[in-house]
Specification:
alpha+beta, 32% strand
Amino acid sequence: MTELRTVGADDWRAMRDIRLDALRDAPYAFASTYAREAAFPEQIWRERARSGNSILAYRPEFGQQPVGLVGSIQDVPDELELVSMWVRPQARGRQVGPALIEAVVERARRGQQSRVHLWVTESNVPARRLYERCGFSLTGERQPLPSAPALMELAMARAVASSAVRSEPAP
């Protein structure tokens, strides 16, 4: 069973460590670099943790070490952007990725956004397939990866259904 926890102020070290692991493991997948973020002072990590925009995933077989990370930001009205998604290689295939994605979708639903949007590196086929299995479709948008402009990113999005329950009038 995957346990999800919204990152709080006291979780800054765990968030920093998994984020740096992600940047080392998959430098082709992120808009930032390990060198850039490893140089961040503690204050930056603390501010990121306090923002409440990130979620850590834990699985009992891995102890207290988080096995996944996802973030979300709202840059566009009515849309939540899924960012910084990563799952440790040894935890892949254990439903950690889908759990993190669904947590962002639920966050969008609670915030009454109508869709979740993300960018995925064109060459990252396993991530694209995961997003497709979770209901995302390509939008047709493309852009160079900011940390490695020779690589292209593709945009994907998923509509967020309202959680409002509609009742039918009694006959």
